[in-house]
Amino acid sequence: MVAESLVVRAARWAEALEQEVRTFVMAGDQTLGDIELEIEQQSRELLRTAAEKAAQTKADRTPPVCPVCQKPLSQVSTDHRRSFECKFGTITIGRGRGYCKRCRKWRFPADTVLGLEDTAGYSPRVQEMAALLASKMPVGEASAVLEHLTGVKLPPATLDREARRQGKRAQQVRRQADEQACQAKAVQSELVLEPYQMIIQLDAWNIRERDQWGQTGQLRRKGQEPQRWHWVYTGTCFRLDQRGKTAGGRPLISQRGFVATREGMDGLREQLYAEALRRGLGQAAGVLVIGDGALWIWRLADDRFKEARQRLDFYHAVQHLAAVGRALYGEDPAKFQGWLRPLVHERDRTFGVVLDTSGSMSSTLMGRALGAIASYAAARDVPAARVVFCDAVAYDAGYLAVHDIAGRVRVQGRGGTILQPGIDLLERASDFPSAGPILIITDGYCDVLRVRREHAYLIPRGSRLPFTPKGEVFRFR
Questions:
Q1: What gap in Å lies between CA 363 and CA 194, rounded to an integer?
Q2: Three-state SS at 278
Q3: Helices marked H in 137-238 — which ranges?
Q4: What pLDDT shows up at residue 118?
């Protein structure tokens, strides 16, 4: 019997589909959903046949060569049939088999060509769908959703196994990409026109994820309790120059790299370092690592990001202080709050500085300006100030200790004079108090400024601002 060609099958399918459309038009109780389902069911067999024919044709054209070492196979035989579950249903193909003397293994070259060499009988597309659904919901629900949406039936245990198989492949691809990033770290991937800061954040948490499907009874008979809770180590990195705003004015990070792994701290260290390199770690003017105070975070930062500043996030800083307060004062709320509140508000005892570093600011003026900042901070017992250098662009120096401001600060700029970006940076900075005042130091050759909070200007004697200031104006010699 001669197999029916796809053209003939497609013609019969089109004729049947025309009839279904006419029936749908005449039926008063059918909705668009009904005809969608009918078209899907009518099309499924045609698509399955097309996929099976394409796979068989490609298998027939695959030469008898070992897919690993590329040597010719011996003892070659044909038509070894195997069934696979694809998106459109079950397909069966005949493949050639041969023995590789070099690898000392039997090989099916067509399986490699079709992407079926490492699977339990499911096509690459089905494996991809299984992995995606299993990553979004419990495997029991994912199995039901997959069958409902695609008609593909995968038991929960099988779906979990296929998702893990895809996960291992993704890990292998990730390792290869990470190795390439580390090998190329000495190569500058882009021309850096402006210096930028890189932010790296790390954390870890427990997730409940079922392992060892179908082995629970066997493990318990051996006295082993199946593991359900696992640590996931995560990290993210981004550049401060890759920020923008939504149409509503909400600030956002336009580009960000993520790492999440169950391979422990060692896995996170290598993956996050490679991700940071891909994001521009090698060209960053400075790096800030933010964590919750866990010792492993600072050790990882010391190991992979030696020059980075390290900062405890405010939420966990208060949390750690509260733990100390409860240990000191027990259940006495008055003493506890009286001890904690001044420490929490310690972060508010600071101010922001926007410093004009353009070419019109001489070295003498710059030195006097830096000295003025240090004197002001020391007189008010301010431990650190939030400093932004500005010429044609803003350079965020972060929080600087008082003695650093007047001493070893290396000014970044020396271009034109546009101070508004520096003011905007401070006003939207998440680590700067909402009520923190801003001190603007300039020689007066600047743009018209708009400051939305308490502020003051410090300018040389004899200079004038090109606008009417709303804040106080102080002068220095």
A1: 22
A2: helix
A3: 139-150, 156-183, 216-221
A4: 64
Average pLDDT over the chain, rounded to an integer: 83
Burial class (CB in 10 A: 0-12, 13-18, 19+), 468: exposed
pLDDT in tens, 284-328: 888 999 998 899 999 999 998 988 889 888 778 878 888 888 888
All structural domains of the chain with their residue ranges: 6-117, 196-210+227-312, 349-476
Task: Give the pLDDT confidence of 16-31 residue by residue, as tens digits.
Answer: 888 888 888 888 888 8
Domain at 196-210+227-312, CATH class: alpha beta
Distance CA 151, CA 1 (A): 30
Report residues of the chain scoring pLDDT below 50.
1-2, 186, 188, 408
Rounded to whole angstroms, the Cα distance separating 147 from 392 reads 59
Give the separation between CA 477 and CA 463, rounded to whole angstroms: 10
Judge whether 159 and 131 are in contact, CB under 8 Å: no
One CATH from 1.10.1740.10, 1.10.10.10, 3.40.50.720, 3.40.50.410 for 349-476: 3.40.50.410
* Rounded alpha-carbon distances, angstroms, from residue 471 to 83, 270, 456, 468: 79, 50, 5, 9
Report the sign of the C-alpha dihedral through residues 311, 315, 321, 327, in that order: negative
CA distances from 170 to 116, 129, 177 (A): 16, 14, 11
What pLDDT does 378 receive? 67
Euclidean distance between CA atoms 429 and 439, whole angstroms: 16
